[in-house]
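[[Sequence with tokens]]
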Amino acid sequence: MTKSIRTPLGAVRGLGSAKAGAHHFITQRVSAIALLFLVPWFLISLIGAVRGGYDGAIAWIGQPLNAILLVVTVGAALYHMRIGMQVVIEDYIGRTSTKAVLLILNTFVSVLLFAAAAFAVLKIAG
């Protein structure tokens, strides 16, 4: 016979592990590791691109490798932000309806920002 650590009230309500915590933990750590390499590349490259003025920055974004890495950097940063904000919303917002609206808004804003950034980079690079 297996002994459960749930309280009787928790067992009746069905409260317990949502089985998603480890996934969020791992994906946030993986995106953080990716950003450890991408953000320094971005900052160092950006400093060099800005020294060339507007035309230098456009030429820098126009290079295929820089355009790809720029889209990947923005995507990783926004994904990392979305996961982090989701955890904050789930942990600190009590009302279920408010929590649901904020989680949906969090995802929509992240996708919208990524689409706008990717469109801008592709328009400049193309």
In short: Helices lie at 8-13, 21-51, 53-62, 64-92, 96-125. The chain has a mean pLDDT of 90.
